[in-house]
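Below is one such protein, fold included:
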Amino acid sequence: MPPKLLDDHVRFRCVPEAGDVVSVVLDCDPVIPGDREFSLVDGVWELALPRPDLQRIEYRFTVTRTATDDVAAETILDPDNSLVVETAFGSRSVMRMPGYAVPSWLSAPSVVGGFTPMSLEGETTDDVPVTVWAPEGSEELALPLLLVHDGPEYDQLASITQYSGAMIASGVLPPHRVALVHPVLRDAWYSGSPKYLRTIAGEGIARLHDQAPIAGPVVVMGASLGGLTALLVGLLDVDDIGGVFSQSGSFFHARLDEQESSYKYFGRISRRVQEILDTRSTARPLRIGLTCGSLEENAANNRVMAAALRRAGHDVTHTEVRDLHNYTAWRDALDPHLTEVLRDVWGNAQG
């Protein structure tokens, strides 16, 4: 049966279909507290996980079986739970806590839009592919622009263009375009690469403007390393950018994020982050929105970053959500948090 919430814990059960099972282990985000090893009770593998302060749990089971002289482990979805979510790392079973609701805009009326592929040339060795979404019939119009790092995954797994279409249809946001940036060399580009940042903020925005006229300040967004990159792009001395929206930004800090210190680009990221933390003023205040899961590893560095950006003079909102480092969490936080940033930067809805 699917997992159940019982008082102060969640009960998971697993009845493997076949084979000589010797162990079952819960595979979920490591920041969730509690044991992972199931116990065998009357032929059923069971686990009581202390209830985490989350709206959802994404999980799988790792089942180990013996077959003749071999021991084989297999990671599977929960066979008794039909609720599944696609993630950047494959499918996961999902348990939703009481009170959780999917965003209403997912099923709301939406304007029809189309996609146009293009590429941005600049200082990077490889051109940066971009797919631009725009409302149908707006080809010649000057519209605001939302530039999204990890754009294709944000659209596939967090429905970012559905969000924009629904917000436009409802009149909450003005008609606008969405530039979905493809992460060809993600680790190299999204780790504070000066060449990549200048390519996006300089020639990139100019090329996007030539393709379709941009009205008003650009808002740059992303999640995880993309959230870090969105902020670094925004902080460049480029007047075209007026807002940043970062979700679970990987603002790695030498003191707070020792667990990430073996990452190839940790040194470069932590140096760039420290430069921002040391900044005490700005001549170009930005409207910045930050969201992060309250239990995830990046929560501490996001709190420190939000305080530093406010201290420097930026208009910052920082919201902690009851979810973790995943696209569903980022999707669920788009409204109202991204909506507020876009309305503050672009003004009230038009038409």
The longest strand covers residues 56-67. The chain has two domains: 4-96, 105-346. The mean pLDDT is 95.
